[in-house]
Structures are given as structure tokens and as C-alpha cells.
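[SOLVED] Predicted holo structure with zinc ion

Edit: marking solved, answer below. Original request kept for reference. I posted the sequence and ligand SMILES and asked for the 3D complex as C-alpha cells.
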Amino acid sequence: MSTDETIAQDDSNIDSMSATARRVLPFERPIFEMEEKLKQVERTGPPSAASRELIQNMREQIAKMKRNVFDHLDAWQTVQVARHENRPQTLDYIELVFDDFMELHGDRAFDDDRAIITGFAKLDDRKVLLVGQHKGRNFKERTEHNFGMAHPEGYRKALSKMQMAAKYGLPIVCLIDTGGAYPGIGAEERGQAYTIAYNLREMSQLATPIVCVVIGEGGSGGALGIGIGDHIAMMQFAYYSVISPEGCAGILWKNSKFADQAARALRFTSKDLLEFGVIDEIIREPPGAAHRDHRIAAANLKASLTQALRHLSGMEREQLVERRYEKFRKIGVFEESLITNVST
Amino acid sequence: MSTSPQQSEVSASQDLPRKRGVPEGLWIRCDGCHDTVFRKMVEKNLGVCPQAGCGHHFYVPAKSRIQQLLDEGSFEEWFAEILPLDPLSFHDKKPYRDRLRDEQQKSGLSEACLVGRGYLRGRPVVLGVTDSSFIMGSMGSVVGEKLTRAIEAATRLQLPLLIVSGSGGGARMHEGIYSLMQMGKVCAALGRFHEKKGLYISVLTNPTMGGVAASFASLGDVILAEPKALIGFAGPRVVQATCKIELPKGFQTSEFLLEHGFIDRIVARADLRSEIARIIDYCG
Ligand SMILES: [Zn+2]
């Protein structure tokens, strides 16, 4: 990465992101406090019958607290969970879900955009092409991966590897996790709009199974740019939106501090999208959400991917492409009036 | 607005100044030469400033655009009965339902795009026009559906497809995920049209941004743009806020896109008809 705008990355944003992310989320605090207490009890002396019972009670209470909080997250809290710094990201899932990962670099035109990772991988015995947006966790990683916000070269890299996969009949797994495609000068100069549009068109035609999972943030066109597939899933606390809540609040409420209201209005949680028929599946997260237990999150993701790929791999390629077309074709809510329209 | 790059979104350019077409009154002020020009003269000149050496392209409503491009009386509107709904019960400072009604009254349009077929200098075409005066020309379910049906019809009828884009808004936030998915839907339809070797000419007008730029507007076999149109993915203010350096001169203009290789030609409005006819003759 050598573009000017990467160096001039927005510092205030980095600060605010890490500050909120490293902190325990406000609605998690009671859970963490109870867990601290439990640790103290566990540390004190040899277990008596009484303390065993106390420990058992506390564990049950913690489990109950997690359910109470996480079964009722509002949209804005969901965004905070989806952006949580410890939430498993693409490289974590590559470790925990796949075997024998072999990274493939470069878009053959400009650069190797580290915001999107691509390569061969095995899901048990099944060979796949993996495409995943990766944000990074600390400052160094986030700089390297540009916060998961790809430039055109990232989308071009993703498509070129996917086209290769289709050539060899490899199914494709796309892990979506981005705040959006990068809104920089270089990105505009190199055709961010065109590159995303081209990906949408070409992905709709690829004659191989494509499974897409929003693992964290599904930020708008930047997410959709690797999001055209046969099976679309979301992790339970991911969100997938036409615009970030901050961006929407800035435009419609004229102030980004109304992001929580915008988040509610946009209806972008996994539950909403399943209800709308925009996604096919919600992948359950462990108690307290994926950032509390990467292994369970990964196991659930793996089970979902395995099932989806098994199902799709039985289909004829032509039927697959036809079905994918119909899948997107039917999305939209409008009225078809019999009355002559107001426009003529 | 916050300066977070998080808002690099498809709808980010909705913060552009609102323009409701050519303002009322005998005289209008030109953004190009800053002169006050006689409104009738501008209209007679296809909405282009008549001052010597100016040539500023004003906004033209979709219906005037169709008159300018197609042979007189040849336009047959399709799918006009498709009307918007409010799938999210979206409510910002104003309920989306009320916003739709107000926009319909102000613009005289039922939605942000018109589609249909007609003849351009005797050549049959399927035409779509988005109108940037209706909620910034943004694409919600209706725009997505009308365009998709028009593209499918062009595929079936084996006719050239012409889409004139004008959208400062990109995807329509008020319809949430439904609007984002229209990008995928329209592009998939264009994919099939492309497979069937259909000719698609995309004409970009001021402004063409966000989810419209990042979908159908960018996928023309031939892409034309009117002079000095604003064209891009992220809104200039978002880019400025992200990069914190001065934007290059002429950033995201038609001329900038031509220089960087993303459009084929810049064409003055007066020449659009003849240039499109020539392209059809080369490819048809
Ligand atoms: Zn002028």
C-alpha cells in the first residue's frame, strides 16, 4: 500500500474505534462483573459443598444474563458487537474453519489489496476458493488491511480469483466484513464504482456455487461487491446495510450522533434480513456473541458452510446460475397499481 | 457530519446541494458563467447555457430528456403502474411515506425513473432515464424493478438499451437493504443482456454517484458523459473528510473520468442523439 490516502488515514477514527472496541461494551459490563466475582469465588480455597453450589448458581446466572442481554440487542448495540475488536475475522476463520490455506495475491493490474484476502482452502475434504475481507485488530494490522476497506484492486483481485475458481469448478466462499469500500482519492481515480458494478455483474454469472456470509459488518456496496451468491447467510450479530448508521444519520438527521436512531430505522440486523427474505440463514453465535468464543463461532460457521456447499454442489451449473438470478430478481417491495399512474 | 470513513457508503453523496431542476422565473443564474440568463433561451437550447464560451449543462427533467433524445411522439412508457411503498416504515425527520408523496407532488413523477421504448433517429431502442429531482434520483425497489424489466425486455426484443443516469443519491437509504439489493438485481439483468450480445449505451449526467454509479451506470458497452458532470462512488465531502487533503482539481468530473479511463467520450447534449445513433449503427 503506497497510496497517499492510506498514509493520511483518519486518526480520530482510529482512536475512537480502538477506544470503544477495547472497552467492554456498556451492556456487557454486568456480565463481566459477575464473571470477575465468579473467578474470585473459584480462587478462594478448597471447594466445599456450599461454594460448589454458589459457583454453580453464579454460572447459571451468567448464562442467563448473557441470554437476557444478547437475545434483546437493539440495532445500534448489534453494530457495536459486529465491530467489536475481538470479533473473529477472516484470518481467524481461516485458522479455525479451513485447512491447508494457500493465499493467492494480486489483481494483475495494480496492487495486492490486503483488505481482501483470497486463496485456496479446504473445508474438510472440500476444496474451495476463499475470499474474505479482513480488518485487522491492532493499529499495525489495521493499517496493513486498511480497516477492511478495499480499493478497486481488492475487488478486481477477488473477481479474478473467483473466475479462476469457476474455471476449475471450485466452489467459492465469501466472508464479508467491511465498513464499506474505501472512499479515497486513489479509489475514485482507479474506478471504485466501475469495479464494484463489474463484480456484481460477473458474480451473477459465475458457473460455480457461491456462498456468502456476513461475518461482521456488511457495509453497503463494498460488501455487496463480493456478495452475489447462491446462499447468503449472516452471523447472528452481524449487520448488513445500504449505508452505515453514522452516514445515514449525517445525511437524514444532519448529525452522525443520531446513529442509534438511524440504526433502528434501517432494519439491518440478521433477523430483519431473514424476515425480508434477503438472506437465507442466520448462523448462531455463542453465548455472549462471537468475540467471547471464537471456536464456537467458527464451528457454527463451518457447519453452515458445509451444509450449504453440500446442497449447492448437487446442482447443475446452469440451474445454479438461473437460481441465483431469480434469487436477486425477486427482491424489492413495490405496488403494482391497476390505476393509471400519476406520471402521465 | 462526522469524518468517519465508515460513511463511505453507497448513499453517501446525498449530501450534495439539492437542485430541483431549472428554477421558476424568467431569468436563471448559471453555475457555469455566473451570468443571469434568460430562461426561455436555456430551454430552447436543450437546457444548456447559451452564453458564448459557457455551455453549462443544466439539469433536465426525465420527460424533457426523452423528448430531446427520441423521435417526436415515439416514446411508449412501460411499467408506469409500478409505484413505491415503504417496506421499512422508515422514519427520519419525516416519514418516508410523506416524503414520497411530497416528492411526487413536487416533481410530477411517480418515482425516480421512466422506462419504455421509442425510436432514436428511426432506430428502435429501449430507454431508461433516472431523474435526479426525485429523492436525488436514488434507486429503491421501483427504480430497480423498472430498470430490470426494461433490460429483460431489451434482451427479449433484441433491442439496443440506452440508460441516462442522473442520481446524486445512489441507493435509496429509506428502503434499506432492499435498495442495496437492487444494485445486484439490475447488474444481474445486465449480465444476461451482455451474454446475449445486447448493446448497452450508458449516458452519465450530473450527478451520477454512489449505488447508481456502482451498478448499471458504469456497465455500458459504451459510456458517454455530459461535460462537467459529477460522477463517482463516494461523495466528494466524504472523500475529503477521509483523506484530509485537498481534492485534485476537477475531481470526479466527466473530464477526470475520461482522463482515468472510465468513460469513452464526453458528449455535449446537443450531440447526444447523433452520437448514440452512430454507435448503434456501428454495433447493431
Ligand atoms: Zn453559463
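OP edit: The two ends of chain B are 48 Å apart (CA to CA). Thanks to everyone who chimed in.
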